[in-house]
């Protein structure tokens, strides 16, 4: 695939060079290296005597179709199964099934989920990797069956299942494999695909390749590879066509994740100590900011009330209490905006062309303070010497979501005074 960055011919039928400039495909070529070595070389490949002794106890001498890790854990049953149930309004786990032919209660060649979900180092490494990026889809290759699994009705989000079905149909048309919905699968929990979907609300497509017994001939793998190798590239092309959802979660590790569902995104932010944010102001936040009544009569005693006075060259500072001889000063007292703009004589500023309830402009997200919203109030006054004094107050309100409700955490104000001029200038 890197060759396509040079000539765009290594993978035909795709403008892969352009796609890879705008996106990225992450490959994890093997998630169970010990199990792979056991199936190929037998227990003699394990250097730890204690692990090898335990392994021989449940391996029963046949390792050609060994599914587990060296410790007898089926890694695809070992992933965290937590998800947020919108119907129950709480975090819960994917419905668990025990018993049956595909279940083991202790270390085995297959189907043992482990002492607890997420207990194995191979599993934990891949869970951490998925959590560290804003992935748009997952293709999980398995064997066997020539099948494709895709939907997760337990999420209760129809939009997710529609999107997953779309990607599954793309994969099925490329590989000529049969699509299998959730009711047709075995439905144990701890699967990689479930973990990915629960963490991202993006499609996780499991592709079961080959119908051959193992060890298989090279021709079997060559044939399977030719049918499924282009699926990640096609998914990359499809993903670039889709717009981002308006709901974001910012995490401490400089990671941000995009979710298709607002409730799920806010619940995810709460669970993982993240910051929920929107890509445009909504009516709830707009109404809340307007209710602050940031006009000439407002008092800001219940908010952060630092005022930074930024003056233009040669300003007139007569009568403005907040202005000192220096160009900037912080006022750390509870005052109203009218008091801030008052003359010593008591004469009040006349507010003209005052933008009090304009649409607040969305700013960047500060992890500690929240999402920034910007607004401005412009003012002017004619003093006793018939001079015009004008300026503006720029405001930045920071909003955090607490218990899935927006809360103003602080408001910063910057007062800019313009140079005075005669009324008839």
The main β sheet shows up as: 7 strands, mixed
Low-confidence stretches: 295-336, 339-357
H and E order: HHHHEEHEEHEHEHHEEHEHEEHEEEEE
The proportion of strand residues reads 15-25%
Number of strands: 16
- Give the overall shape, derived from the CA principal axes: elongated
Could you tell me the radius of gyration in angstroms?
31 Å
Give the N-to-C terminal Cα separation. 68 Å
**Mean pLDDT, rounded to whole units?**
78
User: How many distinct helices?
Assistant: 12
Structural class: alpha+beta
Fill in the keyword field for this structure.
4-stranded mixed sheet; 26% helix
Tell me what the structure shows.
The protein has 425 residues and is an alpha+beta fold. The protein is built from twelve helices and 16 strands. The strands form four sheets. Strands 10, 11, 12, 13, 14, 15 and 16 form a seven-stranded mixed beta sheet that branches. A four-stranded mixed beta sheet has the order 3-6-4-5, sandwiched between helices. Strands 8-7-9 form a three-stranded antiparallel beta sheet, with helices on one face. Helix 6 packs across helix 9. About 14% of the residues have low confidence.
